[in-house]
Amino acid sequence: xxxxxxxxxxxxxxxxxxxxxxxxxxxxxxxxxxxxxxxxxxxxxxxxxxxxxxxxxxxxxxxxxxxxxxxxxxxxxxxxxxxxxxxxxxxxxxxxxxxxxxxxxxxxxxxxxxxxxxxxxxxxxxxxxxxxxxxxxxxxxxxxxxxxxxxxxxxxxxxxxxxxxxxxxxxxxxxxxxxxxxxxxxxxxxxxxxxxxxxxxxxxxxxxxxxxxxxxxxxxxxxxxxxxxxxxxxxxxxxxx
Amino acid sequence: xxxxxxxxxxxxxxxxxxxxxxxxxxxxxxxxxxxxxxxxxxxxxxxxxxxxxxxxxxxxxxxxxxxxxxxxxxxxxxxxxxxxxxxxxxxxxxxxxxxxxxxxxxxxxxxxxxxx
Lengths: 241, 116
What we know:
A: mainly alpha; two-stranded antiparallel ribbon; B: two-stranded antiparallel sheet; about 50% helix; globular
């Protein structure tokens, strides 16, 4: 049996009201209902009769939801400006986290800048792997998960969310932190060069087709994972297209 | 039987009563509804569920301040009046008193009422 005022929660969320306000309103209604039932019981009514009377006194759930919406319940940023929430903010956040990742990697790897990953002590190899994993996979996955969580929690229509997930996947597929081994040459000791783009080498030279293919595959895998998770949650919460 | 809602001309009255009652002590929604019923001898009955939309609107306007408190294992939100709420109450009370006097004058048929 659903908890009382579940339909109020759904109506408010689908109207774009903030989850925080919705939770508070529903909690207060439930507390009020419990008080009314308690007072009915204290007046000698049975449990069923006290509950029924309390529900009548509270009014229809649809009316309670409409009253809150008409009284100006606060609407969330995601409902008011979905493009900002699901496209602009994730991309800005993505850029900020990538920059922070690059700066911290430069700082931490400075002592071993002239070594290839194979020559580095173990702890630096772990750092290179962690920094690369964060930039190539983790930022994108976390941002997609965040967008999906907000969209589902607030029962939002999906248009801008698909756009946002697509863009996060594309950007994550294109950019990251990639170490390249530079062999020693005359006048240069060699070491590791880091690029923000995954450069795929074929026969010792960067191949544009292979690089673009790798980016597309990377983006498609991330988008596929995000889309599957989002689609499953949309079905679970019966969200409108 | 559910209580009948108050007619349309009661618009603004719940706000006035809430601001008055909360000047004496902080209360949560259920207490406010019961207090209004008790103080008015059941003449004014605020919808049990609707009280929260009025409380939240007053809170958004800065007239009320909420405070979460745990009482007997239950989490309650108590409301109290702010300085803004006090000013709002004085304005509302004055308007209402003038209006009530004007209506009384009309009903008694005794001359002109003061302008609002």
